[in-house]
Amino acid sequence: MRFFIASLAVLVTLLGGVSAHFSLQYPIPRGVFDAKNEVTFCDGYPDAASNRSDFPLNGGVVSFHTGHPSWTFGVILSTAQNPTSFDNFSQVVQYFQYPDAGNFCFNVNLSSSANATTLGLRDGVNATLQFVFNGGDGNLYQCADVVLRANASTPSNVTCANTTETSHGSSSAAPSGTSPAGSSNGAASYTLNANEKLVAGLTSLMVVVGAMITLF
C-alpha cells in the first residue's frame, strides 16, 4: 500500500508538470507545442515560419489555454525577418496578471501601441509575436510569425465565449513579468488534447483513491 501511494504521488507530480503550462491557440504558433522547450526562446523553434498568417493591426485576438491558477502575460514583437534574440524584440502589450486557470482571450491593437511608430508597424510588414507567460515557475515562451494587415479580420472560428474581453495597451518598459495592465479576459473555445484528458481522468481517479485510503 505504501509503495502504491508513493507511486501515485510521483505520478501526480509528473502530470502536474504536463498541465501547468500555457498553450497558444491564436495566432497560429510557430511550431507544434513542445512543453519541455517552452522555457526557451520561441518554444525551441529558432527559425521564422515560411507560411506566415495574417494578423490585424487593429482588433487582433490572442487566445491561449493554461493550467496555472495565477499568471502574468505579455507580448513582445520583432520586425526582423528572422529574429534570433530577445534583443530583437520590443514590448507591445504590457504585462498583466490574472488569478485563474482555463481558456482566455483578449484584443490586441498593435497600431495603437507605444512602439508602433518606432517599429514601423503598418500594412504588409512581416512580424514575429512572442508571448511571454509566467505562472510562478519561470517564464515560458511561444511565437507566432505573421504579416500585419490593415484590413484583416480574425478567423470566424477564433471566438471568445463571452464579452468580457479587454483591449490591452502597450508599454515601452523592459519585460519584467510583474506589471499588471488589466485583468478582465474572456474565455476562448478550446478542446482538451490527449495529455489534458489524461490528466483530468487521473486527477478524478486520485480523488477516488484518496477517499479509499482514508478508510484504511
From TrEMBL:
Bilayer disposition of the protein: Lipid-anchor; GPI-anchor
UniProt-listed InterPro entries: BIM1-like, BIM1-like_dom
Key word Cell membrane present: yes
Residue ranges constituting the Copper acquisition factor BIM1-like domain according to the UniProt record: 19-165
This protein's UniProt keywords: Cell membrane, Glycoprotein, GPI-anchor, Lipoprotein, Membrane, Signal, Transmembrane, Transmembrane helix
Biased composition (Low complexity): 166-180
Region ranges (Disordered): 160-180
Coiled-coil regions, chain positions: none
GO CC, one annotated term: plasma membrane
Major localisation: membrane
Signal peptide boundaries: 1-20
TM segment ranges: 198-215
Localization in the cell: Cell membrane
Protein's recorded name: Copper acquisition factor BIM1-like domain-containing protein
Organism: Meripilus lineatus
